[in-house]
Amino acid sequence: MWRCLLIEDDRENSRYIEAAFQAQNYEVVTAYDGPTGLALAQNDNWDLIILDRMLPDNLDGLSILSSIREQGQQTPVLVLSALAALDDRVKGLRLGGDDYLTKPFALTELLARAEALVRRARAAPDVQELSVGDLTLDLFTRQVQRAGQSINLQPREFRLLAFLMKHEGQVVTRTMLLESVWEYYFDPQTNVIDVQVSRLRNKIDTGFEYPLIHTIRGSGYMLSVSGT
Question: Would you state the torsion angle of the CA atoms of residues 137, 99, 1, 52, taken in this order, to the nearest 10 degrees?
Fold first, then answer.
């Protein structure tokens, strides 16, 4: 069971988040103000902190984030905020946030991002090779093979494939791809993702026994053997 600290002053919103995470087998502890949240963040062991940026009692979320990072705490922090401007998002990330999700948000995306942060934090640092079915990717040599056949990828295609493989079996949203692969903290309103995924799919799936890259209509993409 993963332990999550939720620092959120909106009690209705916190109830929705608590219920969603508890249904995924998280233990959730909630603080409704800055001082309580900071004390809990400093004095317990957490797998994840979900942190509302705007809090009462003269201690906002970014101040909490800055404090725990200055103390050397490396717990993954996902910042929630109604402030969606690029400068606001960049500030949250530069102060030590691992991810930044703007309100309103879909609970499915929040859960997916949270799981990605926790798994990344727990992943062995010396992992060299990723594999899904008959597809392998070497993170050090940057070699990709499927069914023993070498596949030549451009740098962006390699990053995209590695991200999809690290999230095997999970729905990956456009926003997640924009931020993690393209490092865009805004939506450029182009079809760049669709074009790149289509090119990658042609290289990874065309001519092989079964497809690995699947489009999840209305949600994003998933890399898996079964497609579910």
Answer: -170
Report pLDDT digits (tens) over 162-219.
999 989 998 998 888 888 888 776 666 778 889 999 999 999 999 999 999 999 988 8
CA dihedral over 123, 107, 40, 96, signed as positive or negative: positive
Same topology between domain 2-122 and domain 129-223? no
Whether this model's pTM surpasses 0.90: no
Angle (nearest 5°) at CA 141 between 140 and 146: 110
CA-based torsion, 169, 174, 176, 180: positive or negative: positive
Q: How far apart are CA 184 and CA 172, in angstroms?
A: 15
Cis before 104? omega within 30: yes
For residues 83 and 90, what is the distance between their CA atoms, to the nearest angstrom?
11
Decide if 183 contacts 175 (C-beta within 8 A).
no
Kindly list the domain boundaries of the chain, sorted by start residue.
Answer: 2-122, 129-223
Task: Give CA–CA dist 54/83, Å, rounded.
Answer: 9
Select the CATH number that applies to the domain covering 2-122 from these four: 3.40.50.2300, 3.10.20.90, 3.40.50.150, 3.90.780.10.
3.40.50.2300
Burial class (CB in 10 A: 0-12, 13-18, 19+), 20: middle
Query: Quick one: CATH architecture of 129-223?
Result: Orthogonal Bundle (1.10)
Q: Identify the CA nearest to 79 among candidates 56, 105, 57, 58.
A: 105
